[in-house]
Each structure stands twice: as C-alpha cells, then as structure tokens.
Amino acid sequence: MPCVCAVRDDLPRLVMAGCGKGSHGCAMTIDYHSSPLMRADFPVARGSVMPPPPVPSVDPDTRTGSMRKLLYVTPLLAVFHGVTVQARGPADAGEPADGREVPELLVTAEAMPGYKADAATVAGKVPLAPREVPNSLSVLTRQQMDDQELVTMSDALRQITGVTVIANDTTNDQVMARGYSLGAMYDGVPSYAGLTAVQQFDLAMYERVEVLRGPAGVLQGSGEPGGVVNMVRKRPGAAFALSGTLAAGSWNNYRSEVDVTGPLNADRSLRGRLVVSGQDREYFQDRTHTGKWLVFGTLEYDLQPATTLALSASIQNDNTTAPSSGLPLYTDGRLINTDRSTNVYPDWVNYHIRTEEVSASIEHRFDNRWVARAALNHRSQHSDSKDAWPGSGVDPLTGTFSRFNRSQSESDYDRDGLDLYLNGPFALLGRSHNLMLGFNVDRRKSASKSGSAPAVPNVLFGQPDSVPEASIRYTSGSETVTSQHGPYGQLRASLADPLTLVLGGRTTTFRTRSRNVSPSVPTDWSTGNARADNHFTPYGGLLLDVSRDVTLYGSYADIFVPQTQKKADGSVIDPRTGRQYELGAKGDFLDGRLGATLALFTLRDRNRAYRDPDYPASSTPYYLASGEIESRGWEAELTGSPLRGLDLTAGYTRLMTRYVKDRSLEGKAYSIQTPSHQFKLWADYRFSEDSLPGFSLGGGVQANSGSESSRGNRAVQGQGGYAVFNARAAFRLDRHFTVGVLVNNVFDRKYYASVGTSTAYNFYGEPRNVMLTLRGSY
C-alpha cells in the first residue's frame, strides 16, 4: 500500500531512505509554495549537480500550474522508483499571499521492485547512478534476495559478478574478487578487514548489498585491492507496512521473519522499523546444526525539516554444533570421493557467537543543496568454541589420520568507525561541479585466549566420535589494536556536457599494537611494524557520454597494505600497493530498465615481501619490497528488465593472475582458488494477468572453471569445471500473500565448491535441496 511522506529539503535522500521500501509505494504531500522542489535551481539532471532547463512559465497558484511543476520534477523521483502524480481535493496546505486556498497535491511513487538498482553509495557516499562511477559496480537488491531465498552475506555475495566465496567453515567464509579479499563498509562507514573471520549479520536487516570491484583506497583507507562491499541497512518508512516470511526446507531448515515499519507520531517526523528473524537448521553434513536469531531496530527523527537523526541497534546469536570445516585430502594430494554427508568432526565441537551493533548518524541538508553527514558505528562480537581437526591428511592405505588436534578458545573484538563528510555542488567557469570532503576513523580491538589438549593418534576416517572431548585450560592469550584514520576528498568536474572528470585522494595514518594477556599478567603494549604515516592514495577517472544510453570510462585506482618484514639495515619494507587501470563501457537501455557493463582491468600488486638474495644463509631473514603479482581480465554484466515481467541479472568474469616476480613461483598462477572463468545468471518471469495470473517462474545457473588446492601440496588434484542450476516457482494467492518453492542444484551435481588444504577446507557443494516459502505483506 502507498505510504505518505512529507517532502522536505532533499527528495533524492527521501526516496533512497525509505519512501517505498521493498514493494511498498510512497505518496508525498507537498506544500508547493515552500518546498525546494519548486525552486528553479532544484537539481534534476544526471548526478544531481547540473542545473535543469528553465521551468515552464505557469501560474503557480492554479492546480494546473502546480501539476506541471510537479510533473517537471517527476523524472528525478523516477530515477529511484517511478512516480504517478494525483490531485486531491482542497485541503489546508497553507495560504498564499492573496489569501486564496491552495489545493493539496498527492505524489504517489509506486516502488518498482526488480534487480536493477538505479543508484548506489559505495563509490561516493551519496547516491550515484552506475553510469556515473568509472569502476565496476554491482548491486544486489532486496527483490533478488527474496526471490532466491538468500539469508546470509555469503549467499548474497555468491550472486555478484566477479566475486568468489571460499568456505572456511559453517560459520564464516572468505570473499574474493580479482584474486584478493574484499573489504567492508556498513552504510558507508569503512571497517578494516570487516569480512575476514568475522560473523556477519543476517540479510533480513539489509536493504541492498553494493560491491565495488578493484582498489577502493580513497574511501576505505588501507586494504586489499579486490574491492569493497557496502552493506546498506533497512531504514524506516513514513507509512505503516508489515511483512513476514515463513519457510521450511531440506535438512530440517526452518526460518521466519517479521518486518514492521511506520510513523510513530502524528506528523511522521519520528519513524521506526523493527526486524526480527529466526532460523533453526541442519545441513547436508551429518550432525551439523545451527540455531540463529536476529533483532534489528532503527529510528529516524527529523530534528527540523532539514536535519535528520538516525539510530539503530542490532543483536544476533549463533549457536552451531559439529560445524564442518570441510574434508581433508589423501596424503598423496588426491581429493576424497566420499558421501557428501560425511562429517569428520566430533559432535562435541561447537561454536557460539554473539554479535551486537549500535549506530548513529545525523544529516543536515542546506538550502544550497550541500549535505553534511556524520555517522558512527560500534560493533562487538564474542565467540567461544571447542574444536577438533585433523592434523594430517588421510593415509590412502590405512584410511587413518596420523593425529587429531583438540583445542578451546574464546575471542572478543570491538570495532568503532566514524565517518564525516560534506558534499555538494558548486559553479565554476560557467559549469556545475560536485565536491566531497570527508574524514574517517576506523579502530579494531581483538582479544583471544586459547588452550589445547594432546592430539589423538591414529583416528580412522569416518569415525570422528572416537576423538574424546577433553577438559582444556587456557594457556595463551593476546590483544591487538589496529587503527587508521585520515581525510579524503572527491571532485566531480564537468569539463563539457558529455565529459566528466573524477579526481580523488586521501592520506592515511595506520597503526598496530599488541600484547600478551594470558595466562600471566598482561605485558606492555608493543608497537607493530605494520604502520604508515600520511600515506597518500590517489584516484582518477574520466566519463564520456557517447550517446543518450552509453558512457565510456577509464580510471586509475590505488590502495596499500603496510608490511612487517625488515630489510638488512633494520628498516621496515615499504607498504604493498595495489594499482589498477580499468577501461569500460556502461549503458542504460529500454528507457533505463536494462543496464549493461563491460570492463577490462589490469591490477598490479607491487612491493610484496621478497627474501633478500644477498643474505641467503642468514639466521635472520631479510627482505626486499620487490615482489609483484598481476591480476588482469574482463567482466560483462547485464541487469534489469528487458521484457515486461522479466527481471534478470547475468555476469561473466575472465580472470588471470600470475606471479610477475617471485623467488620460486615466478610465472605461475597466484590466486589458484578463484576460477579463471565464471558465469552467473538468474532470471524471474511474472506472467501477465491475461495468461497465468499470479504465477512466476525463475531459474539460473552458476558455472565455474576448475580450481586447485593450496600450493603447499604439489601433488594436489584440483576440482574441474562445473555448472549448478537452480529453479523457482511462485504463486500470488491474493494481494497480500505469495507462496513459492525454490530448488537448488536441480540436477543434483556432485562437485567440490572449494578446494583447500591437505587437512581441511575441501567442501562439497550442496546437494539438491528444496525450500518452501510463504510471504505476506500489508
């Protein structure tokens, strides 16, 4: 049902923020005498920085004149949703100077659920259309998450073009693009190594997931050159809406969600949203079980028409028993051909993870269309585990592990992020440009303690319960603090009507320190070698609109990683730098319903630690910053609605990585766990009311070329190429309820989804499984 929003000073922010979340529409009551929508300088051009053509000369105090003005600004709303304009009967909308009554106008923006996002914030803090970003950019929308029944961040990122998810265990995964790990941002606030060995929140609290591929150092600071993921939380709507989900699937997989939003006072200046989800499930591996629940709440309050305060809090609890860290290999390097249900871990192994997060932001929108925003995130996570894992591969003759290790650990981490920025347009040399200036701080403190029990020798494969649980004392512990901060800026300069120059840069100060804390009295903090002082990270891009539908672009992007190794003179080697050159084309076709991208990239990872050949026999190893890796390839992506009723997303990635300079691996492939060819497709078709009313059918495929295991085992045999097909059917029972069934791995293909080491991380892909879902909304 439509919602009602009071339009204040920044229409694009309102539309992005929650006018019509999900499949809900948005109606806006506009006082057209005071609204900035009626100002002649209100931006409607691409990028919200170019002045519009002259407003038609109309009588502003007639219903016809007002309608014309509202229809004139309608294309700006249509960038995000699609709008219809209606006139309602006379109402108290304010009195003009001559005392005549002004009619109230209703602008109804019906949300257009689909797979194509017309704007994202991952590349510039403020919403930018993909054609305005001279880099590869993908967005996973809420609609696609629902259609494919995606519930974890790993599920979501598996759908993104060019992204590879490598399983570590049942609770967390490694996420890579262009051969390197991805960084993380939460609503635009950077989080150093935020996707590494950290449990993520359930997707129920997110509106969309944005991925920028390639170095993102200007907004992120230090990090790997693979790219960055921006997770965008849901925000309150300005009218009441309620939705819920009940689902049941294979391996006793049960899930429920409730999402309620709406105004909390009469003038809708205070709005709230509450999301609750719970899941209890087993897996295709024997004995593995997870129970998980999430509560997410958020409030927005308009302190004044141009200033909005937002608060949110989240808590998630995960309990997993007998989690699988994958299968081992045979000691000769061969993959083990066994039942996919095989779990080599004892049933007393368990992980407990509790994650809490609070965030706050305040945004002010100035009359000159400048925006100032401050955002603060705090996330804490506690985990404790009892673990057991193979200390060797499986002897192919005896079918045994030489030993099985046992341990117990606890860990805590606290992460704080602060981001401040000022963004807006300015005029120079007769043209309109855009400038963003900001500063952010990112701090992470991690603490852990652990202990181990004697290894159990000669354990037979397939009999994990012969490994007994042990009482274990903590014998070691440590704390580490990593922090970085720095100013950043981005300029979008209009050089000519079709030509835009994008320049950016930041300076970063990076520090680490650590100490031992257990079991003895904590030691003094020691400063780590990994550090940087005002390290400058540049960025440059150029956009050329060659037609109404197509933009060509080129860009240079940079990022760095401090290193700890030392030279012979005792100084620390220079940071690694990831430098990428990218050329591409982006297009919006069929009146903006279909987006296409083609990109070619070359990435050089330089200054890698390289053993100094002048000191080959030294007891203390010395290094030079002279190693180098190259990652290059191309990507193509198609997203949107090419036909009425059809939504699709398709992407292909060709990736080649190699050691350019290395003592022993020169010329060989670098990222051997990421496929060199990758194709992803998902499409969903809604039949018309004239053919099969209420029905929709969907399907897709993920195809990958082969991958290999860790290079430490030279005899490893990798997984060959494979393709996995999924399908979905749904029926709309009435205007409120829809029932659907999803089948993953339709042809029950048996394959290794990832290939790891000789002792673990070799994961079979999921066998065929089914999920039945009932969704309702009001």
TrEMBL record:
GO terms for molecular function: siderophore uptake transmembrane transporter activity; signaling receptor activity. One of its GO terms (cellular component) is cell outer membrane. Transmembrane segments: none annotated. SUPFAM superfamilies: Porins. Residues 328-746 form the TonB-dependent receptor-like beta-barrel domain. Residues 130-228 form the TonB-dependent receptor plug domain. InterPro entries: Beta-barrel_TonB, Beta-barrel_TonB_sf, Plug_dom, Plug_dom_sf, TonB-dep_rcpt-like, TonB_sidphr_rcpt. Keywords: Cell outer membrane, Ion transport, Iron, Iron transport, Membrane, Receptor, Signal, TonB box, Transmembrane, Transmembrane beta strand, Transport. The keyword rRNA-binding does not apply. It comes from the Bacteria. It is found in: Cell outer membrane. CDD domains: ligand_gated_channel (cd01347). GO terms for biological process: siderophore transport. It is a multi-pass membrane protein. PROSITE patterns: TONB_DEPENDENT_REC_3. Belongs to the TonB-dependent receptor family. This is TonB-dependent siderophore receptor. It comes from Microvirgula aerodenitrificans.
